[in-house]
Amino acid sequence: MKHKYEIDGMTCEGCYYKVKGTLEAIEGVSEALVDWKNGSAEIQMDNHVSTATIESALQAAGQKYHIRDAQPSNMDSSVSDESQRSFLETYKPLFLIVLFIAGTTGLSQYPFASFDTMLWMRHFMAGFFIVFAFFKLLNLNGFANSYAMYDIVAAKWSGWGFVYPFVELALGVAYLVNFNPTITNWATIVVLGVSSIGVIESNLNKRKIKCACLGDVFNLPMSTVTIVEDLSMVAMAVFMLL
Question: Quick one: fold of 2-69?
Fold first, then answer.
């Protein structure tokens, strides 16, 4: 994957060689094309390397070097196109999936003689986690790369992006079989609570990046919809603990 960055502090060819050598010494970076005159760099990565990691390496090489995304590094033309579409058109896949899960889990209690709201929430959360894990597992590497762009844990440990879908799958199965509700609900609160931190930060910083909630299958832009999605699940888990 190639990511483009802007680098401040380069003033001569000496800076060029220093920055290029520093970048290419970072684990996961295979090549760095540096333009010191324009203050930019295009980095070819074998594995995702966070901007914070690159910044730390440059800071160690020289305090005057600072790096930032020239454009969101996991954005592509298809994601940009999404911004030209209406809200409903953009998030149609997400809304349909949630409605299907909500409807199916509700119909499971037909003929509704004594509709159990708690049972519906448990089944909804089971379906939510299992379906969303399914989409992430369709392209695990693509999801991990996208997730590392905003999740605070995946940004520091790239392996978390590969583990997370299996955590979701495990939570889905736990809700489905009603495994130790206290542990399952607390695990949901912690996992999605931590995940929502990166989502909230990205929205506050107005970063135009791809949301990884449905893996790498759909090009959904990060927005408040993602915050609502995560925090709604946290709220349901809290409610079931009460």
Answer: Alpha-Beta Plaits (3.30.70)
Buried b / exposed e across 175-208, counting CB within 10 Å, b at 16+?
beeeeeeeebbebbbebbeebbebbbebbeeeeb
- pLDDT value of position 197: 93
Place of tokens 């832009």: 221
Evaluate if residue 99 carries a pLDDT over 80: yes
Name the maximum alpha-carbon separation found in the chain: 78
Q: Is 124 exposed, middle or buried (0-12, 13-18, 19+ CB in 10 A)?
A: buried
pLDDT the model gives residue 173: 98
If pLDDT is split at 50, 70 and 90, which confidence band does 195 have?
Answer: very high
CA atoms of 7 and 198, how far apart (whole Å): 24
pLDDT at site 202: 80
Query: Domain coordinates of the chain in residue numbers?
Result: 2-69, 77-241
Note the pLDDT tens digit of each residue in 15-73. 888 888 899 899 888 889 999 888 899 998 887 788 888 988 888 877 678 888 875 44
